[in-house]
Here is the input.
Amino acid sequence: MKIRIKDIAARANVSLATVSLVLNNKPGVRESTREKILEIARELNYELPGNSYNRTTPKGTVRFLKIAKHGHTVNRDHDVFIADYIDGLAEKARESSYNLEIIPFNTEEISEVVNIARDSQSDGLIVLATELEYEDIRAFEGIGCPVIIIDSYFGFLRFDFVDMDNAESVFQVVTNLVENGHREIGFIRSPTSVQNFRLREIGFENALKYYGIPLKDQYIYSVDSTFEGSYHDMLALLKKRLETPTALFSTNDIIAYGCIRAIKEIGLRIPQDISIIGFDDLPMSAMMDPPLTTMQVNKKRIGVSAMQLLITKLETDSKMPPMKILIDGDLIVRKSVKNLNTG
Here is the structure.
């Protein structure tokens, strides 16, 4: 089994950023922690600096900016999701002899992030833009090095984007529900400022139109994007509404978990009374009761593609036109959807 930096981080009980600093021989980590991480890396047979990766002088340093602007999605609940992005970035960086540094930020002041990134004199930047608005992304214009944006997508901005294909993925979700006989389909949305959430909502509306299914206002549930918040919001909504759809699509898995708790609390069964599909395929989804059908995002492929694009710009043509890469997901079918066709 291939060892990833998230495995080292989990064993050492430290953050991904701390492991990255140690593996790239950077300051800012206590010596005892550094020794512990290196010892664990050796035990797991992780390819440490000094092996084949660093037999030649690194070509440069790429920094991954992990930005939590409001923290409603970029938080501990999604660390395992983001870790897969980092694994893809790290794998391609090692292969191409670049150092990868992970720099976490927890701030609403994106201008501060940009100033720090500019002062760091990176060869290139990969920005986790999950919680960023288009004005935040525009702040990276003229920063002086190539910038790749991941986990968000604004088609009208002249930046390089690598993201999941939300429209195609949501179409898979709705198609699955339709093929299982569902025509009363609802959507669990979140007002949290996340562009991918907006794109999934648009994709859901378009998919329903394609199948000639009306979008009913009473089947739209707007909840917070945290587990506790979605649970409380969904519980309040369900208590007010007498009619429920036969199936729900949730903007992401964390929201689905909270809503499932609320659905069960009012006495409805999944999937006998109401089916549900999530988005992200977090590890907990396979352990839910029942196991949750959900959209698996090819996170590592997104990381690899982002790093490959950045390296291409660094090594061949820094002035090449911006590229927008969207990567399809895979629907993981489990037990949370009832087939109405079989009664």
Summary: The chain has two domains: 5-164+298-328, 166-297+331-342. The two ends are 43 Å apart (CA to CA). The domain at 5-164+298-328 is CATH 3.40.50.2300 (Rossmann fold).
